[in-house]
Write a structure and sequence with these properties.
alpha/beta; Rossmann fold; 2 domains; seven-stranded mixed β-sheet; binds 5-O-phosphono-beta-D-ribofuranosylamine
């Protein structure tokens, strides 16, 4: 059985690309991205999806009277593709309870920091300003709070004395492109078990 995946995006989509590539090269097996949905019309991620023959839809949040209505439309799209696993890849909105409950333990996100440190926006800048000596990225299941669900994989990178926000973000991004596909592969193979906050990998 093929695992039906949907990806929510808002921007450039390099993490989306890493998942597409790792499905195409056979690292992630028995899985297909059925649809990519963006809240931004000009997200380059939509173009990346279309370049690979993947359905890509823009859903304009401002066309709905509130967040519930907007997310109901997204749910309708996802259900139309019989989606089992929902990936967030640079999606810049906090998901509402409706979607999180509907896809309980079936939504995964990537964050460019070693959670629970530096949640939210500009995580790499927060890390630099805090003076940490290691930074990194985290793949985690999504719950109703921001960047807070059970952790699947993390990877560290050093912070160098002359790092800028951009140089650190680039070093972290290279690891994001490794651990996100790895986490999706583990999910697709049924190897992730969640008890409370703890994810065990078999
Ligand atoms: C990544 O750094 C990801 O960790 C964060 O948003 C950024 C998205 O980049 N959630 P991209 O759109 O995948 O290139």
């Amino acid at each position: 059985m093929t695992l039906n995946i949907a990806v929510l995006v808002s921007g450039r989509g390099s993490n989306l690309q890493s998942i597409i590539d790792n499905i195409e090269n056979g690292y992630i097996k028995d899985a297909a991205i059925r649809v990519v949905v963006s809240d931004k019309e000009d997200a380059y991620a939509l173009e990346r999806a279309r370049n690979h023959g993947i359905n890509a839809e823009f859903v304009d949040p401002s066309a709905f009277s509130d967040k519930d209505q907007y997310e109901s439309r997204i749910l309708e799209i996802l259900d139309g593709y019989d989606v089992e696993l929902l990936l967030l890849a640079g999606y810049m909105r906090l998901l509402g309870g409706g979607i999180v409950r509907h896809f309980k333990n079936r939504i995964i996100n990537i964050h460019p920091a070693l959670l629970p440190s530096f949640k939210g926006l500009h995580a790499q800048k927060q890390a630099l300003e805090h003076g940490v000596k290691v930074a990194g990225c985290t793949v985690h299941f999504v719950d109703e709070d921001m960047d807070s669900g059970p952790i699947i994989l993390q990877k560290c990178v050093p912070v160098l004395d002359d790092d800028t926000e951009d140089s650190l973000a680039e070093r972290i991004l290279r690891e994001e492109h490794r651990i996100y596909p790895e986490a999706v592969k583990l999910y697709a193979e049924g190897r992730l078990d969640i008890k409370g906050r703890i994810v065990s990998i078999s």
